[in-house]
Write a structure and sequence with these properties.
The complex is a heterodimer. By secondary structure, chain A is of the alpha/beta class. Helices cover 31% and strands 18% of the residues of chain A. In chain A, the strands form five sheets. Chain A has a five-stranded parallel sheet, sandwiched between helices. In chain A, strand 13 and strand 14 form a beta hairpin. Chain A starts with a helix and ends in an 11-residue tail after the last helix. Chain B starts with a strand and ends with a helix. Classes of the chains: A alpha/beta, B alpha/beta.
């Protein structure tokens, strides 16, 4: 019997199998940010411990930093303290740190791959649930809590029980109007937000294989939204092409990497097969990421509309989603804040104007994404369309900083969660692709991007 | 370790960690004092006036230590602040059909026992805590049992032996892991 990709990586990282189903698993790469790490460093100090392998850690600031005037001192005193705490912790424990004004700063899940730090076959963790993003590179990558952050700092290992494995196959190709965001929203709408709890999911099939690395990351990024411990994909020429532009690759490593795919005879605990022909541009209409429907549907067509979600959103079940007038558009986050996302957004925004009553924030995922966007003149397209083009950070995805959507306002967002209050107390979030977000910004209503993408 | 308390019913599925504690309260660099922000947007109205419609604000549930919740509790963000808020508030046990993976680890690491029971059992406990809010539930970690005399329910739950040991002995998992440093160093040389 063959092995799954997950098992191949898991098995080579077991330091020691403990009783029951627990294993001590070695972690190759640990990413750190300012919000979930201060208590972990404090824990080390309290226990008199050092960072075991500083070189396997990389820190940056993203969650709680402003996305305007990053060259000036941080105004929010609590944000300033969190950023300064991370900086001094990294200095004390010898960890590489990209501060707010560093040219390599950005959202952890954007800069890890961008810098070539995320590599096939690795185990990767971070105190952030969207660590699953890195699974697009054939890695076991998942989010952890702060106590576990402390453990990884202290011994580069975690005590873990082995999850079950699931394979989600998306057969055939999607149409030109369908993005990888639509694919993952469709998958989550089929499984439900607890559909993959307890599983590690491998994404496969023609529709997945034909995606670029950045598009693949949008898929693995949102695995957590169906409860999965993480998501991953096999290594292929797309993976290797992406990395060869960022790191020196030798023949030996390439030989190892090409093996990083599930064997044909591998058995998964669960297999789900979907058809790409069924996927259209998708948006969410409830307060959970599984409430996605295609844009030709009515709100009530979602299986995951609840009395609570209707009370919160004030939507009517009989309304068409395209009838909804919007107030904000947010383009960014670890889901859709990469250069290809900004290119897709700019392509539609070019020579157009946003609707008068809509505020549009474009927030690049990293300094490098911002620099590249400016080099390509995308910033100018956005500004001409009446969009704001900001500095990198997590921004309105979780609204920890000042980038909050006001109560009652409706935001079409390229981020990953539409929970109650996620983008600000009382704010209503509609998750969408960058193309749908820009199409909506132009019309002022939730809009299908298809006509712009032919 | 035995926890005897009435239960707090929260009969909603998929209660995410943004509801347990909104991101606005993740700005501290310490672990203490998050209890007052627990379920913030549900617990308070404008100007932090208590929302008496919300179960946590009803007198009968004030000192309860057991939370009875719908499926997939604690999904979403990995923020351990959610577990810190629950623990600081006084919650010692979560009973659900399923607790989300990351939150389950965070609960263990903060001395909270996440217990997964069958839907039928959780439904019965939910109904009891709603209709007879004063009725006690007895959670015995040693024997791994949950008992509710009022409804003649006695059932057992599964827990990994290492997690159980850490909870029973107040052991910190980090200290447990540090014992393996020699093995970890050997692994690294392979």
């Amino acid at each position: 019997m063959g092995k799954t990709l997950f098992d191949k990586i898991w098995d080579t990282h077991i330091v020691k199998a403990l009783d029951d189903d627990m294993a001590l698993l070695y972690i190759d790469q640990h990413y750190i940010h300012e919000v979930t790490s201060p208590q972990a460093f404090e824990g080390l100090r309290n226990k008199g411990l050092q960072v075991f392998r500083p070189e396997k850690n990389l820190a940056t600031v993203d969650h709680n930093i402003p996305t305007v005037n990053q060259n000036k001192p941080i105004q929010d005193p609590q944000s300033l303290i969190q950023v300064q705490t991370l900086e001094s912790n990294c200095e004390e424990f010898g960890i590489e740190y990209f501060g707010i004004s560093h040219e390599k700063q950005g959202i952890v899940h954007v800069i890890g791959p961008e810098l070539g730090k995320t590599q096939p076959g690795m185990t990767i963790v971070c105190g952030d649930s969207h660590t699953s993003t890195h699974g697009a590179f054939g890695t076991i990558a998942f989010g952890i809590g702060t106590t576990q952050v402390e453990q990884v700092l202290a011994c580069q290992c975690l005590l873990l029980s082995k999850p079950k494995t699931m394979k989600i196959v998306v057969e055939n190709n999607v149409s030109k109007a369908v993005s990888s965001k639509d694919i993952i929203l469709y998958i989550i709408s089929k499984l439900g937000m607890q559909g993959a709890t307890g599983y590690f999911v491998e994404f496969a099939g023609t529709a997945i294989v034909n995606l670029s690395m950045e598009e693949r990351m949008t898929i693995t990024n949102m695995s957590i939204e169906m409860g999965a411990r993480g998501g991953l994909m096999g290594v292929d020429s797309t993976t290797i092409d992406y990395l060869s532009k960022r790191v020196q690759l030798d023949a030996l490593i390439l030989k190892e990497w090409v093996e990083l795919k599930s064997d044909e005879t591998a058995i998964f605990d669960k297999v789900i097969v979907l058809d790409a022909h069924d996927i259209k541009p998708m948006v969410t209409v409830g307060t959970s990421p599984d409430s996605a429907i295609s844009l030709d549907k009515r709100i009530g067509d979602s299986l995951y509309i609840t009395p609570q979600s209707l009370e919160y959103t004030k939507f009517k079940k009989t309304d068409f989603i395209t009838d909804l007038a919007i107030d904000y558009v947010f383009i960014g986050s670890c889901t859709n804040g990469r250069i290809e996302d900004l290119r897709k957004a700019a392509k539609i925004a070019k020579n157009k104007k946003k609707a008068n009553n809509v505020t549009v924030w474009v927030v690049p995922g990293s300094k490098s994404v911002k620099k590249q966007a400016i080099k390509e003149g995308l910033d100018k397209i956005f500004l001409d369309a009446g969009f704001e083009f900001r500095d990198p950070g997590c921004s309105a995805c979780l609204a920890m900083n000042d980038d909050k959507i006001p109560a009652g306002a409706l935001c079409v967002s390229t981020s990953n969660r539409n929970f109650e209050g996620r983008q600000g107390a009382g704010a209503i979030t509609i998750l969408a692709s960058p193309a749908t977000a820009v199409a909506s910004a132009i019309t002022g209503k939730v809009s299908d991007p298809t006509k712009y993408l032919k | 370790m035995i926890i005897t308390s009435n239960g707090i019913p929260l009969p909603f599925k998929n209660i995410d960690t943004d509801q347990i504690i909104p991101a606005a309260f993740l700005k501290l660099t310490t672990k203490e004092g998050y209890g007052k922000y627990l379920f913030y947007n549900w617990r308070y109205l404008e100007d932090e006036k208590l929302n008496y419609d919300f179960v946590l604000n009803q007198v009968i549930y004030k000192s309860a230590q057991i939370l009875i919740v719908g499926n997939n509790f604690g999904c979403g963000s990995s923020r351990e602040h959610a577990a810190w808020a629950l623990a600081d508030y006084g919650i010692k046990v979560i009973i659900s059909t399923q607790v989300a993976d990351i939150h389950k680890e965070n609960a263990y690491n903060n001395g909270i026992i996440p217990i997964e029971l069958s839907k039928n059992e959780v439904d019965k406990l939910m109904e009891m805590t709603e209709n007879f809010p004063e009725c006690e539930i007895i959670v015995d970690l040693n024997s791994q049992t949950v008992t509710a005399l009022k409804i003649n329910l006695k059932t057992s739950f599964k827990i990994n032996s290492i997690k159980k040991d850490c909870l029973l002995n107040g052991l910190n998992e980090t200290q447990f892991l540090m014992k393996y440093i020699p093995e970890i160093q050997t692994y690294e040389t392979k």
